[in-house]
Structures are given as structure tokens and as C-alpha cells.
Here is the input.
Amino acid sequence: EAVSFIERASTPFLLFVSHITPHTPLQATCAYTKRYCHIEDPASRIYAAMVASLDDSVGDITAALRTRELLDDTLFVFLSDNGCAGYIGNACSNAPLRGFKRYHHEGGVRVPCIWRWPGQLPAGRVCDTPLMTIDVLPTWAGRLGQALGEAPIDGVDVWAALRGDSTLPERA
Here is the structure.
């Protein structure tokens, strides 16, 4: 559906894709589990297949943007909301971090967050500043020059920290 949207969308547009995978229940198609038949543990095999399906989906989305010559003009954000869930056995791991989903240890809250926008963000830069998913909306709004209204929000515009121009602004 995301690729279909990109193919027919006029620009500019906002596309938000919230993948359910990898998530419980652990399930994947045979096409994906066959890729990982060398993994003996069934739960780990299915989890790997689920991650592969996510990877393929993100690849399809970036390919559609590239085909429309929009990839380098697109602010692309990839992130997760929590670490591996400890209640699914050994299917995944947060090692070397301590903790799992549902816990405030780093294994539960330290997750991938990738921002890509050629010409706007430095390629390959690693931002060591702790950011939160609640920072995405005010950062997008800041790029668009849009006010978020008068009601207070929890996130902050982290654009300068992502670029490496400054540290994270104070949180209210």
C-alpha cells in the first residue's frame, strides 16, 4: 500500500508507515522462514523472518521513492518504539544492553532511530544525544515552518542536534 501511495501521490506528501513486524504473535510466511532454515530455534527463525520482511518493505518504499526521483528530496525516518520483548524467549536479544520491552533499562528503550535527508543532514553522522519518539512531530513541524498550536506538547525540535549544530534543547 505504501508503494502504491508513492506511485500515485502528488508532492509534497507525508507517508507514515507503522509496521507491525517484528511483534507478537511471532509469525511469518514460508517464503521468509525458508531464508532462515539454518536457524534451529523455531522462535528465532520466525523472528529473523519477520525482520527480513520489514527490511524488504523498507527497501520497496525506498525503491519507489528512487523511481519517482524523490528519495534525495525526502526526509526519511526509521525508528522503533521499544527493544526486544523478554516474554518471547530467546527469539531476539538486546545484548549487550540490560532489560527488555516494558522496562526502563536501556534494552527496553534504546532503539534504532535513523534520519536520512541528503543535503540537509550529514551522511553517516551518529548522534549521541538521547532523543525520543515524541521529538519526531515537533522536528517535522519545525522543518515545515508549522506551529503546533498553543497546547503544550512533550517533544522538542531536535533538528540542530541531529545536524550536530548544537545540543538538545531544554525539555519543558
Observations:
- Helices lie at 2-8, 30-33, 42-67, 106-109, 136-144, 159-163.
- Strands lie at 76-79, 113-116.
- The radius of gyration is 18 Å.
- The first strand starts at residue 76 and ends at 79.
